[in-house]
UniProtKB/TrEMBL annotation, chain A:
<feature type="domain" description="J">
    <location>
        <begin position="43"/>
        <end position="108"/>
    </location>
</feature>
<protein>
    <recommendedName>
        <fullName>J domain-containing protein</fullName>
    </recommendedName>
</protein>
<dbReference type="InterPro" id="IPR052276">
    <property type="entry name" value="Diphthamide-biosynth_chaperone"/>
</dbReference>
<dbReference type="InterPro" id="IPR001623">
    <property type="entry name" value="DnaJ_domain"/>
</dbReference>
<dbReference type="GO" id="GO:0005783">
    <property type="term" value="C:endoplasmic reticulum"/>
</dbReference>
<dbReference type="InterPro" id="IPR018253">
    <property type="entry name" value="DnaJ_domain_CS"/>
</dbReference>
<dbReference type="Pfam" id="PF00226">
    <property type="entry name" value="DnaJ"/>
</dbReference>
<dbReference type="InterPro" id="IPR036869">
    <property type="entry name" value="J_dom_sf"/>
</dbReference>
From TrEMBL, chain B:
<dbReference type="Pfam" id="PF00012">
    <property type="entry name" value="HSP70"/>
</dbReference>
<dbReference type="InterPro" id="IPR013126">
    <property type="entry name" value="Hsp_70_fam"/>
</dbReference>
<dbReference type="InterPro" id="IPR018181">
    <property type="entry name" value="Heat_shock_70_CS"/>
</dbReference>
<dbReference type="InterPro" id="IPR043129">
    <property type="entry name" value="ATPase_NBD"/>
</dbReference>
<keyword id="KW-0547">Nucleotide-binding</keyword>
<keyword id="KW-0067">ATP-binding</keyword>
<protein>
    <recommendedName>
        <fullName>Heat shock 70 kDa protein 8</fullName>
    </recommendedName>
</protein>
<dbReference type="InterPro" id="IPR029047">
    <property type="entry name" value="HSP70_peptide-bd_sf"/>
</dbReference>
<comment type="similarity">
    <text>Belongs to the heat shock protein 70 family.</text>
</comment>
């Protein structure tokens, strides 16, 4: 029951369709979150196992190397595998884009804190054993036909 | 050696029992359970397997790797294009396939509503496609002994897959259960469930559905990796490839970044145009009164239309290699077609199609945040990529002189699917040729209806999968106690322009003024590409707030058209949500 971290940090990618541009603290507060000890959140660089001044090429190489270990296709259906990969990809997405990297570097601490908070488990996840890695529903249970 | 399915009334398909999917009997099979790769084309289908060393494309008894995709309904017998009719004397010829007794183009019809323009265009096919235009599934039927006998695209596909499965099992000499199938980028999640259902009816378990160009990207990643190992160059630099795939029914584009055996899909785009549209354009061009001439499907009209189709198809194929072609065909009833067609006329008639191709290529590059100069290789696959205008158009937009050489136009997708099948089945290869990973992206926006009939995208297209995103919404009425969450997928700005995947209500919202509630809608695509929607009230908090709701999508089985309209009409105003303005968000 190690909790599956949740949503992508808002800093990631800042896609066109997403109105959010600034990272915002998560609004879901719950008992689980309060009880969890506030471990120091790793920076996005630490997620990729890099130092802060890493080159773009190093970032890409680290992302690929870690993806080959942590992508759910490789890591299997272990609980949290997908969430782990989502976090890795978000770190990569933020740092591989010069603009979002600059923004992150300026306000690094705040963003990292937001990321850490988002690890808190929302209350609707409290009973589920983590959505990731759940076996795919087979058609047999599909009652439509 | 063909497989015949006798007596339609009897069960046509096998149903895998639950125990087979729970994994309890995983140790039982004495054969390696490697998933096969299947490319169901609109026109042709192919199947490939990893044979322990490499990908092998299987041939049918007629020595074909590309097998015509159709199912022939004859008396009480059904036979699919895999065997193409059993013995030599029964072998189906093209005119039999166009006689109304065969159903083909299943991939164009599957999971579509009768208001869909692709379904509308399918009315010019020799079998029966009946529409009511209200957003329900179309009625399709094959001609059996001068009677239209109803069927469904799923059933037709299942019969075809059953024959295909038998072919593979005959070849491998052991039962086959798992498969990786390629699908068009433009396939909605609902259409994907229809493919899964057809597979289930045929006793195949879908391990993965792969957008066609991403299967090609995987093959490319493998080739790059092997070349690197051969050249002994270490991990290598990132290579950008654009894959353009156009078959008879769909057109797809993918941009992939490849290095070290990892293929990262940067962007995908697709649309429902293909060779079938080109064929229909040319048929209408050479026979301007096509629609009135063929109004009402009588036996002689079906036969006549078959003749025109064959002649036109043949002319289009020949035009790929010659300057001009002649179409001469006697359609009966005093109607003759005699026409010389050259390239400029061909291109003029099909300009709309080329324009769409251009649009999706540009869109894909834009989404990948790349310019043509970034592209290292351009791959052209699918039957339509043989058309000179298509080749020059794609290469021109990518600013390339030549396309990538090391892939087969018609076999690349199925080979990639078989590679993925081996990888996903856990097969490893000592030479490292299966040491590959594809990082997929979601091809369409996923979101909900909000702010009236607008579409609020929560997971934008080309987001890397697995993915999880959320968005805050608020109420539009004072004391609004319920809110409707209607989940859509697509590219339209208005909700109605997209595919409705399903809907549910959030109830028990506390009675407060409009705009003061915060409702979180979270979308999650897991590693198996399953979409789940979580929604509930996050502000105010407290014990008086109802639990969150988790819904697996799609939930809707039919009636996508009228259902969306009915929801909007009945509940649009009262149960509407608004995107929470950013300035009000903490």
């Amino acid at each position: 029951m190690i909790s599956a971290p949740l949503r992508a940090p808002a800093a990631a990618g800042a896609p066109l369709f997403r109105p959010a541009s600034a990272p915002r603290p998560i609004r879901i507060r719950c008992a689980a979150a309060a009880a969890a000890p506030a471990a120091p959140a790793p920076t996005l660089y630490e997620v990729l196992g890099l130092r802060a001044g890493a080159t773009v090429r190093e970032i890409k190489a680290a992302y690929r190397r870690l993806a080959r270990e942590r992508h759910p296709d490789v890591a299997g259906a272990a609980p949290g595998a997908a969430a782990e990969f989502v976090r890795l990809h978000d770190a990569y997405a933020t740092l591989s884009d010069p603009d979002s990297r600059a923004r992150y570097d300026r306000g690094g601490a705040a963003v990292a804190a937001a990321v850490a908070q988002q690890r808190a488990r929302p209350r609707w996840a409290a009973s589920a054993g983590g959505y990731y890695g759940r076996p795919r529903r087979t058609w047999e249970t599909d009652q439509c036909w | 050696m063909g497989v015949l399915f006798c007596r339609m009334a009897e069960q046509l398909y096998t149903v895998a029992s639950d125990s087979e999917t729970t994994g309890e009997d995983k140790s039982q099979p004495s054969f390696p359970d490697v998933a096969i790769g299947i490319d169901i084309g609109t026109s042709k289908c192919s199947v490939a397997v990893w044979d322990g060393h490499q990908v092998e494309l299987l041939k049918n008894t007629r020595n074909q790797k590309g097998m015509r995709s159709y199912v022939m309904f004859k008396d009480d017998n059904l036979s699919a294009g895999v065997t193409g009719g059993t013995a030599q004397e029964n072998a189906h010829e093209e005119r039999d396939i166009l006689s109304g007794s065969a159903i083909f183009n299943m991939k164009r019809l599957i999971g579509r509503m009768d208001t869909d323009e692709v379904v509308q265009a399918s009315k010019a096919l020799p079998f029966l496609v009946q529409t009511l235009g209200i957003g329900v599934r179309p009625f399709i039927a094959a001609l059996v002994n001068n009677m239209w006998r109803s069927t469904t695209p799923e059933e037709v596909l299942a019969i075809f897959l059953l024959e295909l499965k038998a072919l593979v099992e005959m070849h491998l000499k052991h039962p086959v259960r798992n498969a990786v199938l390629t699908i068009p980028v433009a396939f909605s999640r609902f259409q994907q469930t229809r493919i899964e259902r057809a597979c289930a009816m045929a006793g195949l378990h879908v391990l993965r559905l792969m957008p066609e160009p991403t299967a090609v990207a995987l093959l490319y990643a493998q080739q790059q990796q092997q070349q690197l190992m051969h050249d002994n160059m270490g991990s290598g630099i990132e290579k950008i490839a654009l894959i353009f795939n156009m078959g008879a029914g769909y057109c797809d584009v993918a941009v992939t970044a490849t290095a070290g055996g990892v293929s990262q899909i940067r962007a995908l785009s697709g649309c429902t145009i293909g060779g079938e549209d080109i064929l229909q354009n040319i048929m209408r061009h050479v026979l301007p009164n096509f629609d009135s001439f063929y109004a009402g499907q009588t036996m002689d009209r079906i036969r006549s239309m078959g003749l025109l189709r064959i002649a036109t198809q043949d002319a289009i194929h020949r035009l790929a290699n010659q300057e001009t072609v002649e179409i001469n065909v006697d359609l009966g009833n005093g109607q003759k077609v005699s026409k010389v067609l050259d390239h400029s006329e061909f291109e003029q008639v099909n300009w709309g199609i080329f324009e769409k191709c251009e649009k999706i290529i540009n869109q894909c590059l834009l989404d990948a945040k790349l310019v043509p100069e970034d592209i290292n290789d351009v791959m052209l696959v699918g039957g339509c990529s043989r058309i000179p205008r298509i080749r020059s158009l794609v290469l021109g937009l990518c600013k390339k002189e030549v396309s990538y050489k090391n892939i087969d136009t018609l076999e690349a997708a199925v080979a990639g699917a078989a590679l993925e099948g081996a990888i996903a089945s856990g097969v490893t290869d000592p030479s490292g040729s299966l040491d590959l990973l594809t990082i997929q992206a979601t091809p369409m926006n996923l979101g909900i209806r909000a702010d009236g009939d607008n579409f609020a995208a929560i997971i934008p297209r080309n987001t890397t999968v697995p993915a999880r995103r959320d968005m805050l919404f608020t109420t539009t009425q004072d004391n609004q106690s319920e809110a409707l969450i209607a989940v859509y997928e697509g590219e339209g700005e208005r909700a109605e322009d997209n595919h409705l995947l399903g809907y549910f209500k959030i109830t028990g919202i506390p009675p407060v003024p409009k705009g003061s509630v915060e409702i979180s809608v979270c979308m999650d695509i897991d590693a198996a590409n399953v979409l789940r929607v979580f929604a509930g009230v996050v502000k105010p908090q407290g014990p008086a707030i109802p639990p969150f709701i988790e819904v697996r999508m799609p939930t809707l089985d039919d009636g996508h058209g009228w259902c969306g309209q009915a929801l909007a009409k009945m509940y649009g105003k009262t149960l509407d949500l608004a995107v929470l303005p950013k300035k009000l968000q903490p």
